[in-house]
Amino acid sequence: LKVLGYFLKHLGHKRKVEIMHTHSLFTLLGERLMLHTNTVTVTTYNTLYEILTEQVCTQVVHKPHPEPDSTVKIQNPMILKVVATLLKN
């Protein structure tokens, strides 16, 4: 997930849409995560949050991220669908 976050962070918007949306990779990500996790761990949630905001850190964080401030922007809104799918199941 961290590698995906770094990959998306360094892509331009047009290229990101071309790669991720055209091939429904966010949907595939949600499906794969459902296969391998019974519950959403804080670590998984943190990484998905980092992908959502494209503020990927180099460390794996095992405690919740601090509350976002007004400078944080959603960069990959389709991650919200992945999180919702995981929470639903």
Automatic annotation (TrEMBL):
One Pfam family in the UniProt entry:
DUF4704
Q: Which GO terms describe its cellular component?
A: cytosol; membrane
Q: Which GO terms describe its molecular function?
A: protein kinase binding
* Superkingdom of the organism of origin: Eukaryota
Q: Where is the DUF4704 domain?
A: 1-88
Single GO biological process annotation from the record: intracellular protein localization
Keyword line:
WD repeat
What name does this protein carry? Neurobeachin
